[in-house]
Amino acid sequence: MSENISLIALTVQQQMQADTTGHNFDHIQRVVKNAELILRDLPQANRAIVLAAAYMHDLADDKLVTDLAAKQNEMEKLLATAEFESDQASAVMDIISNMSFSANLVERQTLSLEGQIVQDADRLDAIGAIGITRAIYYSGHFGETVYDPLIAPREKMTKEEYRQPGTTINHFYEKLLKLADQLNTAPAKKIGQHRNQVMLDYLAEFKAEWNGER
Q: Which PANTHER family does UniProt cross-reference here (predicted)?
């Protein structure tokens, strides 16, 4: 199975290496490392399903892909080539379809243990120092405003509303600062507490400097 995971990793690397939105292969590798860290405490989870979903989770991200159905079909073919049984492939695709923040805006989706691990692994890379960097990188790619004190963060949003442009700083309040409380597994929650504080400290410093207080 390790050779099959390597095939998936290589394919994902080829497709995501040139990404300039903060979802490139460096991000994928960090998510995989996070997943492997969580797996140490949850050895009962299916490792192959976790790693495949961790590698493939951004291939069908609807904010990055124009033809979602075609990409999902391509992913299913990749899993078949990697010799995943149909039930394993379905488990991987179910995780990818239901783990994102936007998929859980209106109603929280039920995830398998493997799905909870991959969701946590991905969310850990969205917070802390790396999360700050990725948020700025993503906003810069799409030309979003960094901060406007007259624009309040949005509270409850549909997926369509969430996809509308906002400001970089508001993104912390609309999404990133919510993630630590939504983590599923004990190892991720422990890491998430520290990374959440890193973001809170950054925002306090940012606003103090913006307002000329220091």
A: HD_PDEASE DOMAIN-CONTAINING PROTEIN (PTHR33594:SF1), SUPERFAMILY HYDROLASE, PUTATIVE (AFU_ORTHOLOGUE AFUA_1G03035)-RELATED (PTHR33594)
Q: Which CATH number does the domain housing residue 162 bear?
A: 1.10.3210.50
Q: Residue 8 contacts by C-beta under 8 Å, 6 or more apart in sequence? A: 51, 52, 55, 56, 78, 79, 82
Token code pair at residue 146: 């960094």
Q: Distance between CA atoms of 94 and 199, rounded to whole angstroms?
A: 31
The Cα 27–Cα 20 span in angstroms is 11
Interval 137-178: pLDDT, tens: 999 999 999 999 999 999 888 888 888 889 999 999 999 999
Beta-bridge partners for 167: 145
CA separation (Å) from 102 to 62, 148, 167, 204?
Answer: 10, 23, 17, 26
Rounded Cα distance between 68 and 98, Å, is 14
The residue segments making up the domain with residue 23 are 2-210
Q: Identify the pLDDT of residue 1.
A: 64
CA distance linking residue 68 with residue 60, whole number of Å: 6
Cβ 115 vs Cβ 104: under 8 Å: no
What is the Cα–Cα distance from 123 to 82, expressed in whole angstroms?
A: 26
